[in-house]
Design brief:
Number of strands: 9
CATH topology of the largest domain: D-Maltodextrin-Binding Protein, domain 2
CATH superfamily of the largest domain: Periplasmic binding protein-like II
Structural class: alpha+beta
CATH architecture of the largest domain: 3-Layer(aba) Sandwich
Helix content: 25-40%
Radius of gyration: 32 Å
Shape: globular
Number of helices: 14
Amino acid sequence: MQRPGLAGRCIILRFAKLPLLDDCPGRLAADTSPAKTVSKGGHAMRTRALTLWAVIGLLAVFGSVAWPQQKPQQQELRWGAPPIGTAGHKALVVLASLLNKEMPAYRISVLPTAGAIATVKGYAIKDLDGYYGSDIAFREFAKDTDRFKGFKARAQRIPVQSFWSNTLEVGLAIHVRNKDKIKSWADLAGKRVFTGPLPFDTRVQTERALAALGVKFVYPEIALPDVGSQLESGAIDATTIYTSSESALPPWIAEVTRAADWAALNPSPAEVATLKQKGFSVVEVAPQVYGRDTHTDKVIELPFYYGFDVSLEVPEADVYAMLGIIERHAAELAAADPTFSQVAKDMAGFQKRGIESSADLVPIHPGLARWLREKGAWDTRWDGNIAQP
């Protein structure tokens, strides 16, 4: 409970017709004069006493009122996401909704960008407070190559691993009418293959795999909403397809399905062996994940790791708390978006695998290190790669 402020006390004194305080607004010189006696003798004394008791009563009433307090200021987090219609954007919307509810000291805004790579760059130059980072992007950043060529010199801060959220798994598809003509990835040599928008990490992963197999192709730049119609018309021979956590689809893939009857194009057994030999992980995704007939009994895809990350301006204790919130609500997150199914299944194990993909590329947030230590999943080989404030 608090005493009334200056304005409240001035109102009470005016009401009681007593002399005003020096700081009361509208105080006139006449206010400094003694209160006039309304009659001689004890009548004036009684009048003043009654007035004084009335003021005391009003002060007691005002003092018992809970005066509104200013709310503590929230820290805004501008969290970059890939474009609307992608797996990363959808996942961050779901995650931000949970964190805004469970971490009231923060207010998270989801900001779509041209692609995950743009979120990492926006973070590095301090245009964004959080980003969607992959092991592919971290490798390019650390080695100052490809999409990050020459960028490192401009960076005002380096990426930090905070929370590994999912894998994305890339594959390829062709129109079903060509499935007897194009039977392996080598058959795409010289063909028009849409590997994804230029800023996308999925494009980089797909092109790395084709390069590992020695497949040279023609890249057409296409807007995502037009991919299905381009495949249907024959303007392109193949397109990238991908899943998230081997269990969810980006919304734009559903648009391709509505526009064209496509078939998954799996690499041949010999190509799979070559890819594994050159360091690619390989997974088999059930056709049911795509919600349609892929004209194959499985879809062979190549995964890589993604995470939603923040800077050291979000302190260790808060990142540690954030990870605890995600773990407690992992099943809820996975129900809202299967992208979080890997985290729901084994969050500590997934964080460990994510770090293993990038431990020597960018530092680890101390909040993540603390959380993993408590889970018994920390590797002491990473001790020297914890980010320092």
